[in-house]
Amino acid sequence: MTPLFIIMLGAPGAGKGTQARLLSETLGLPQISSGDIFRENLKNQTPLGLLAKTYMDSGALVPDDVTINMVMDRLSRPDCANGAILDGFPRTLAQADALDKALATVGAQVSKVPLLEVSDEAVINRLAGRRVCRNCQAMYQLEFNPPQVAGKCDKCGGELYRRADDESDTVRNRLFVYYKQTAPLVGYYFAHGVLLSLNGARAIEAVQADLLAALKAA
Ligand code: ADP
Ligand code: AMP
Questions:
Q1: Which of 38, 69, 164, 199 could bridge to 52 as Cys pair (CB 3.0-4.6 Å)?
Q2: Catalytic pick among 39, 91, 112, 131
Q3: CB–CB of 178/12 below 8 Å?
Q4: Which domains does the chain have, with CATH numbers?
């Protein structure tokens, strides 16, 4: 079986994590979120986590060498033998190039790159109300996808918190960084014939249905 490596692309708040988690359950492939790995390291106060924090706090990207090593290490684990759903990586052309080279060494390649297209206004609005479970990282949105009990995760009962980098000034900087450093990946993957552009501004279930249909048709 050819391994399936899917990269979720889009601005911060476009719904990459939400869709990656659903897709991971449907396809039985691990979801790999570079942001989650950095946050887990920060929670455990590892040197990697403390280093990443100095960049994450302002919405800047963690340097490529650190990020690439961390994700390649994760991808080399046995649970990725059949592929993975990547969310938040790659975020620069250097990261995309490193990923292509690493996959080529094991005879694999990036399979498809769904791009979730959502307006800047909508992502700013979504991130203002994003809440994350401290325990299982499930994602909520106070207006569009609220938890059944305020402040508690529906899935595991964990405490919901607001990410420090979802404050409005940091969100604006993250959007700026996205356009400057990550948006060139749209052209990169289009040129490789693997880009799938999707309207990410619809309800979560509608986007998931479009995503599954697009992957099937591709
Ligand atoms: P990303 O991983 O791209 O930063 P998330 O998946 O964390 O984005 O989604 C950002 C916020 O928007 C979360 O609070 C999530 O619950 C919410 N969200 C995700 N998809 C949608 C959608 N289609 N419509 C409305 N809100 C959404
Ligand atoms: P995310 O959870 O994807 O929104 O990422 C949160 C933050 O982690 C980003 O603003 C960056 O500071 C850092 N980060 C996550 N993924 C990457 C990456 N691929 N390259 C560089 N920095 C990253």
A1: 38
A2: 91
A3: yes
A4: 4-119+182-217 (3.40.50.300)
